[in-house]
Amino acid sequence: MFNERDALRLRLEQLNHTEITVIREFQKERNQIYAKLRELDGANQLPSVNKKSSLIELASATAQKFKEVNKHSRTEKSSFMLNTKEQIHRSKTSIHREAALKVLNTYKEGIRGTDLRVEIEKETGIPIMNMTTFMQGLMKHHPEVKKPDRGRYKLSKEQELISEKSFK
């Protein structure tokens, strides 16, 4: 007859076995991920997975590589993006507003709000959390921005010339 002590001991053995199985699966998946990352990097720029390098070292190397790639892609994406020192002193909203005015200036007939959002995010690299609130603020600060139809925005005719001069 099983008593409670034997049942608990058996359950602990089952847990240990399951834990070892799960750890092996995680190790296998981690090794596959590292192999895929090395394959994508091509030149094997990440440190090799061995017993000497810890997970923290691997994570920091990956983060450093990501920062370098992100920094280069940000400067290549748009000439509009500012360097990091200048960016500290400017709010996201002011960067978005400048980009919005620039985009609206290129679309003389107007642009849909969703398309404008995509263009602004592409230009700045910073997502807009609430487009309606952002555009209401933009129209408040820049009266030349009008909303002639539902979901469309454009620069008014008399203000386009002023806006063009500010970008040159």
TrEMBL record:
Domain (Repressor Rok winged helix) ranges: 97-153
Rok N-terminal oligomerisation domain: residues covered: 1-41
Origin: domain of life: Bacteria
Pfam families, per database record: Rok_N, WHD_Rok
Region (Disordered): 144-168
Name this protein carries in UniProt: Repressor of comK
